[in-house]
Amino acid sequence: MSSNSFESSLKTKSKVIDQSNELKVQLNLFSNKIIIIVSYNGEIDSAYHLKIPNSASISSYSSLDYDYLRNDNNDGSSDDLDALNEDFNYISINTMPVCLMGDPTNLKLQILSTQVLKLMISLNKNESRNIIIQLSSKIFKGSYKNKNDVTEMDFDVLYQVLDLFKQCYLSK
Length: 172
Description:
Elements: H1 3-8, E1 10-17, E2 21-29, E3 33-40, E4 46-50, E5 59-62, H2 78-84, E6 89-92, E7 98-101, H3 107-123, E8 130-135, H4 152-170
Parallel strand pairs: 3-8
Antiparallel strand pairs: 1-2, 2-3, 4-7, 4-8, 5-6
Helix pairs in contact: 3-4
């Protein structure tokens, strides 16, 4: 195997967040597996294995299927939901991340891992390689006192990681 073929299977993107901290996503693409490393200032302390579900267990729903999300103040028209999000597509997958290393009770990292998998499936419906994702639990540092408390910062962090992953996955 030449070094060029390895380099073409390695993708990296990084960005500075909070003025002094680096968030880095690295993809190592192999024939049967994808290893994703999401480091915070070069550190990782958790790892999860995610099995790509077969296409029969992946469901896609349009926003119109979510009538029950409307609250009592809405008049019941489909415009209520469409105004909220015109292009909303929800991918439901039936898979759970298996903790290989780190704290198995950290729900934020489990959710982040699953969201990366969902994004990858939405970007490439033919993806069949399983994933090992290595993460830093410090990604959510400062956004909680208890690791499972949810704050507004968590969604910003999730968005930044998913955006960086998408850029990295789609890069040549």
